[in-house]
Amino acid sequence: MAMAVQKVFPSAQCTIGPWIDRGFYYDFYYPEGFTDQDMKKIQKEMYKIIRKDYPLRREEVSREEAERRIREINEPYKLEILEAIKTEPITIYHIGDEWWDLCAGPHVESTGKLDQKAFALESLAGAYWRGDETKPMLQRIYGTAWENEAQLQAYNDFKAEAKRRDHRTIGKDLGLFSLQQDNAGGGLVFWHPKGAHMRHMIETYWKDLHLARGYELLYSPHVARQELWKTSGHSDFYSENMYQPIKVEDEMYQLKPMNCPFHIVVYQDGYYSYKDLPIRWAELGTVYRYERSGTMHGLFRVRGFTQDDAHIFCLPDQITDEIKSVLDLTEEILSTFGFKEFEVNLSTRPEKSVGDDKIWDTAEGALKDALQMKGWDYIVDDGGGAFYGPKIDIKILDAIGRKWQCSTVQLDFNLPERFDLSYVDRENAKQRPIMIHRAIFGSLERFFGILTENYAGEFPLWLAPIQVRLLPVTDEVSDYTEGVAKKLRDAGVRVEICTGQRLAKLVRTAEKAKIPVMAVVGREEAENNTLAVRTFKDGDVGTLSVDEVLSRVTTANATKGQSF
User: Fold this and answer.
1) Distance of alpha carbon 55 from alpha carbon 200, whole angstroms
2) Is 151 a catalytic residue?
3) Residue 260: active-site member
4) Is 479 a catalytic residue?
5) Catalytic site includes residue 22
6) Domain around 181
7) pLDDT by residue, tens only, the chain of 564 residues
């Protein structure tokens, strides 16, 4: 592709082009900018290169020779890439005698080995060189490549299905939420009544379950003095993701990017012995992070979001049991929302870290023991832990096989040290507690987006914003319909009445809104205290008594049931 770009646009300069999941991209310095029409020209040139079956040849050169050649063709970005390569010899790959690039390889023998029906250029985007917004804007071309045409077609089908499930479109169509960039600014979520009610149900379930599992709830402010963030280290290590401080009288305050320091402040306000631990505190805490406009995406990446945070303060010998309990709780919550397949990663001590060898060995052993007790297979990411402790990350698989990082469990030796946290042990000596950070949803906004795409807006019955829509076919049954609606509402069923259109249109409108249960009400139903029921999932299910409909929906609510 890079060769084709420079054949069609000789002034374009190459930068870097890595592979990514399901494809690749390549960034070019080309101030004029590429267009969709240019993409067609580039792909057409790629076909020509494949048909000519150029051989690919590997060449080893010295660093000095590589630099000479790069300067000769005026590729300044390649010079920076060369400087970053620490190993020698430097390898160059040639496509025939017409084009070459710095590359580690390997490659196919010749361009003719590629199936021109098995790749496609997909999209254009802007990207700053090295991800630094102070550096030049580059033109990024995304592509995908497969072994054969059938695989490419399967991928295109997957993309079409993913587009059908896009939470941004579904959220707008169903009136769940909006992102008011023009009015309020980017990355800020406005929950509409239906979406807000769903969020309320998610939060209520989360709180009730945590209270039942031995957690206590906290609420903390949205801002704090800047000194708190200096003590925690966020001002030094996380400042690029934080908003500018706010001056209040003679002090500087900071919008919180995380909840951790606030829970620590609560801990500092008490006095604890080893008998008091473990302490489990949970909060649905809204945080604010500076995301650049080009990185935001629907609910998946926003500037203000609510984390389902919890922090556990425990003794070293309590780590295994606490982690096991967190994993049990994670499985219970995620499976309730329909996610039952996980990929688990255990990240161990990185090269640069805090804490002594003994506590790291104890912590990593405790995480492994908890995973073994849980019976979960896991992938070890050697050196992938945070500098302050090892962690477990859990990815969920959705209905079309995509993996989403949601839950994380992290051990922390750093913040207890920074804030001088302590408890009194059996010998009446002060000791440091172990701090466990954990989130199960990750953030409510992102999880809601995942949930929406997983179900394509066809939410489980217990979670659907409207569970039953009554469709009276004549004004004569209005009183009966209102009576049914009241009976359902009094039992906690979310119900609405829809009129003013022909029955066929009422049904189509309900199906478009993905209402789980539609109930037609005519004279016969009013006379017999019944409803003619149709579900979104199964179509007509027949005539049922009002009590039967009520029983099925309330049972689904009580058991977190998926269907009618």
Assistant:
1) 61
2) no
3) yes
4) no
5) no
6) 170-220+256-455
7) 999 999 999 999 999 989 988 899 999 999 999 999 999 999 999 999 999 999 999 999 999 999 999 999 999 999 999 998 988 889 999 999 999 999 988 999 999 999 999 999 999 999 899 888 889 999 999 999 999 999 999 999 999 999 999 999 999 999 999 998 888 888 999 999 999 999 999 999 999 999 999 999 999 999 999 999 999 888 888 888 899 999 999 999 999 999 999 999 999 999 999 999 999 999 999 999 998 877 889 999 999 999 999 999 999 999 999 999 999 999 999 999 999 999 999 999 988 887 788 888 888 999 999 999 999 999 999 998 888 889 999 999 999 999 999 999 999 888 999 999 999 999 999 999 999 999 999 999 999 999 999 999 999 999 999 999 999 999 999 999 999 999 999 999 999 999 988 999 999 999 999 999 999 999 999 999 999 999 999 999 999 999 999 999 999 999 998 889
Do 280 and 421 lie in one domain? The reply is yes
CATH of the domain at 282: 3.30.930.10
Q: DSSP labels for 362-393? A: HHHHHHHHHHHHHT---EEETT-SBTTB-EEE
Catalytic residue among 309, 393, 398, 412: 309
Tokens at residue 20, please?
Answer: 């990514």
Does the annotation count 180 as an active-site position?
Answer: no
In this prediction the pTM is 0.89
Q: Which two tokens stand for residue 471?
A: 């469709």
60 and 182 belong to one structural domain: no
Catalytic residue (one of 78, 311, 349, 446): 311
Out of 254, 307, 318, 410, pick the active-site residue: 307
Q: What is the full DSSP assignment across 146-193? A: -SSHHHHHHHHHHHHHHHHT-HHHHHHHTT-EEE-TTTT-TT-EEE-H
Contact 165, 176 (CB under 8 A): no
Per the annotation, the verdict on 405 as an active-site residue is no
Q: Does an H or E element contain 414, and which?
A: helix 414-418
Tell me if residue 406 is catalytic: no
